[in-house]
Structures are given as C-alpha cells and as structure tokens.
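Please predict the structure of the following assembly.
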Amino acid sequence: AQSAARPDTTMAITRGAARLLTDMGFALVPELTLPNGRRADLAGLSRKGRIVIVEVKSCREDFAADAKWPSYLEFCDQFYFATGTNFPASVLPAGEGRIIADAYGGAIVTDAAERSLSGARRKALTLRFARQAAFRLTP
Amino acid sequence: AQSAARPDTTMAITRGAARLLTDMGFALVPELTLPNGRRADLAGLSRKGRIVIVEVKSCREDFAADAKWPSYLEFCDQFYFATGTNFPASVLPAGEGRIIADAYGGAIVTDAAERSLSGARRKALTLRFARQAAFRLTP
C-alpha cells in the first residue's frame, strides 16, 4: 500500500508546496533541470530574482533513497524539503528548510538557510529557468 | 475583406516567425509585457541570454496605426518587424530588421541592428521573461 500510495502523496505535497510558493510571490517551474543534470521537483523565482528549490519527500524511504540531495544546494538561495504531516522530522538533516504540505496548501515549519549564489551562477540559473519555462509553453 | 482577414494574417505571420526563431535556438514568450507596459508580439531569449523582439505587422495600415514601435528598441538586443510577403517594404523604417513569414516558416530578409542592453536591464528583462513564462505554465 505504501508504494502504491507514494505517487499520490508526492503529487499532493507538490501541489500544496506550489500553492504556498505561489502565494509567496514565486513563479514556478516544476522539474527544472539543473546544470548538473538533476531535476529539482520545484524551482521558484521571486520578483527580485531569488531562487528557491523544493525537494518533495513522500516518506522516510523516499528520503533514504536519495543520497544526492546536497547537490541542489549550490543552485539556489534557499532549499526546502517538502513532506506530508506524517513524515518523521528527525530523519531530515538539521539546518535545511522544511515545508509541510497537503494537496491544499503548505506552511514553512523550518526556515531555510540563506545561501549566496554568485552573480554569474544566478544569471545562468535565471536564464535556464526562463528558457525551460518558455520551451514548455510552445512545444 | 481586409479587416476580416487581418487577424488570420497576423496569426499566420506570428506562427511562421515563431518557427524561424525556434529554429534559431530562441525560447519564446508571446505577448511579453515590457517594463513600459507595452506588449511585444514575440520575445525570444537565446541560449546565451540575448533578447530579440519581433513586432508583427499584417498590412500597411497596421504599421501606420502604431506610432510607438520605437519604444521596443530599448528592451532588446535585436528588433525585427515580421510581415507577410505582400507587405510593401518601403513603408518600414530603414535600419530595422525584417522577417518575412507565412504560417509555415519565415526568413530574415534584413538583419536587425545590434543594440547593447546594459547588464542591469538585461538582468531585469530576463527575470521578467522567466516569470511571465512560468506564470503561464501554472495558472
């Protein structure tokens, strides 16, 4: 049942986290491909050009299977894990942000550390975000 | 017949110009709202971050009715008018780029002058392009 439920759980958490970020003023691209080839579940771009990445974890096993989450950190100003209410908080690494979400919305329960993107990297990531969003508009 | 045909003509030219720009490697946002409130018919963003604006003119009257086209120039690296084959070339201002297009494709018949966006303006325009594209993905 767990494995069958996981995709639905992931979808619900993703939707709720997206609503939260949208309410916060971020423009969003789901599944943004990063320069290292990994795909961020949600990438947000604020009015001021700040970049946030959200990685959705449906359950403890989903987190345990992902050894590469730290490779997102260098591509954003803030990084959040998004989980459901039942996710065991102690499993997540200390110091990273956390969003709790369901299908209807979400809340930041732990603020993310502030990282500082270099100007060159921010420029490259903004361009990447822009082009991936536009290519999906006109396939 | 002219006025009834105009929207179809505009749509066909826009589609052909979009195909041309896509083939050239641009990611496109139609109807990009610029900082001055005007909307560019097509805005393109290249892999290197260059910005092109295309203004579609269906007929001589369509061009004559638009006194504000020079207000696009400061927001792009290159500016093109896109018209159909029957459009009288002499009507267009010398020195601006021209694309001739139909519904199936287009070609650059006059290269656009190179303009140089400041770093700050390019950054702001790229951010604007990115957010408008992303907001249309997830309405």
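The mean pLDDT of chain B is 93. The beta strands of chain B are 27-33, 39-45, 51-56, 78-83, 97-102, 105-110.
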